[in-house]
Amino acid sequence: MKRQMRFFAIFAVFALVLAACGDGEGEATTTTEGAEATTTSEAMDDTTTSEAMDDTTTTEAMDFEAVKVCFVTDDAGVDDRSFNASGWAGVQDAVASGAAQPDPILLESASAEDYQPHVETCLAQGAEHIVTSGFKLADTTAAFAETNPDVQWTIIDFGSLGPNVTGLEYQTDEAAFAAGYLAAGVTQTGIVGTYGGVNIPTVSIFMDGFARGVAHYNEVNGASVQVLGWDPADPDAGVMTGVFDPADPIVTATCESMLDEGADIMLPVGGAINLPCGTAIQSRGIDGALVGVDADAVEAMPAEYMDLWLVTIEKGIQIQTQRSIEAHAAGEPSGGTSLVGNLENGAVGLSEYHAWEDRVSDELAAEVEQILEDIKSGAITWDKFVVGAG
Amino acid sequence: MTATAELFETEARVRATPEERRSTIVGIVLIALGVYVFWAFGLGSGAGLDARFNLSLQTDRFQDLSWVVDARTLSILVAVIIVGLGIWRVTRSALSWTNISLAIGFGLFSLAFLAWAAAGGQFSLVGMLRSTVLLSVVVVLGALTGLMCERVGIINIGIEGQLLASAFAAVVLSSAFGTIAGLVGALLTGGVLGLLLAWLTIRFHVDQIIAGVVINFLALGLTSLMTARILTDVQTLNAPERISAIRIPFLADIPVLGPMLFDHSFFVYGMFILLVGLHFGLFYTRWGLRSRSVGEHPKAADTAGINVYWVRYRNVVLGGMIAGFGGAFLGLSQVARFEENMTGGIGFIGLAAMIFGRWLPFGALGAGLVFGFSRAVQQKVSILGIGIPSEFLLMLPYIVVIVVVAGVVGKTRPPAADGQPYIKQ
Asked: Looking at this predicted complex, what is its ipTM?
């Protein structure tokens, strides 16, 4: 009996260790990072998610005094094809522009226990600028930034956490507004839909902008396109799946349910929860489309959905990371503020029209273009999501 | 009638049986529910507002079917029926109708609620019913797994792990060698984990709860590790061909019932076949009698010449294979890809469904449908946009499960030898 118990104990320990390892090495797909959680394990061909954005920074021969950069990922690791990958690409861009010293340090976290030791390693290696990737590192960043006031910090997707911390945030509703206008312009049923993973600001900001864009279309064109899933007047009641796991049947059901109500253009926000929606559109034989979020969907998503993408609402983590490092290298660190990506500075934008390009009339394309300009200039404005308050 | 008999009769009247008391309580609940429906949905719906329930999907043969009803009239009618049912319950007649009355009451309540929510608008009723079926498949299969094991006296907490591991096997093998390989692999994986559970609990008398928990951790750990180490690098292994729906000719064209039941992947049909098969098997065959006797009184079964260990091994492995079937549905039928911890606790809901279903196959179906229905309603209501916070709606299905398991089901009786290791003398 004793022997048996021992056998069993070893077995249990084995299982627990495996569980721990597996969790740590896991990807961002089941985390609650909302819009940032992009799938990592689907068929993709290229290696980095480079944002297809116009590089509006002036990188030509500024007076940079190259700083030593250290980059700490969250537990999704650098190959997440999402914000970690984009942030790291931004660091490399900073190296290329001479703002960061060559050979920046990359520390990949396997689990939350790694955050603190990794940041300590950065400090021990004499890093002058530490980039922490994702809101999961917020507590660690805040604590160490306070005790290390001479070091500059950048935190991705979070507000500033102190006088020496630069926050990177995104006014994605500006681009989503234009996407909503576009969707309202191409819908054939007069109904568009949106749903999110969990009702957190990085998710709902997309839905809010989108719904307002549709409303703007109605106002301008005297149309009555309906939005399912989000009402700017009642943000608590937005449609959420409650999960970021695309395999959960509730995700398919949520999308199908909107299709049942007649929606044909869908904006699902949160990692890969748009894939089941693509499948649903295909299996219902609906002539519909999806709006992508974060990184260009054509590059980031599996091939079988290629003919479904209308446009992607993009979020330029790469460019913002580069800018933050460059500001430091130029002697004017942006610590204490949030660099808010928006249409104006090019860190938020609409991608090229994807497969639905020929369905977008020239007039509509011109109107969307005009709206993007009007939002930049402030001619169109609304009660936007508050970001960058920190 | 003699005086003694009369005395007994009075005695019986004074001391109500538990069934009678339950009937009264259910009656009071129903009356309260009816009053609530009258107040909230009847008076709460604006006068003359029609709710349009759409009864056809885009893929249906018969298009544009719908049922238009005045929300207020419907709600008041429903309220009257529910109160009537309640009064009937309070009189304590026809005691076997207690649960049925309750079910009818809550069904009508849902209808009035939906009419109220859709008043002045429309929504796809058939879409919601279809979602209900789809959302209940894994729960039902999980419950059947548990039922197979518990009927022979082995508690299976590891359903979650079995589902997860077999979903992984289905996705990887299907990506590499085709759909058939994926399906076979999933069944085998479920079966092997069943065998492990049986081996640990029968051969080593490991506590059954702990053995199940170990299986869950093992499956979570192994699949997470392999996802991170293998699937991230070799992404072609996470791209199986999706198993699509098979429309059953003619039947799928029936309005409402067609899209609800006859336009699914074969997993859904398989679930219904399994249900009927298991029900018949358990209660009308020698296999079923032996299984149940082992679960109720293994010693007596042993004395009668039944090989208790063999029966237990066999059923637990078969149960594991049912979970394997469920895992394959998760991995191949929805998005056709594996995600870390993609089961997300559905196996435990399956376990609850088994208990709610009183260890009966069709009970498990009913329980699964209740869960699926509450999820479908939750999700439909959030789309209708009547301003209920999404966090609350997401909680709803679980509240329903808790209420149902704790309150409605009442006392249930598991197989007598459930969880008891059998040690042959």
From this structure: 0.74
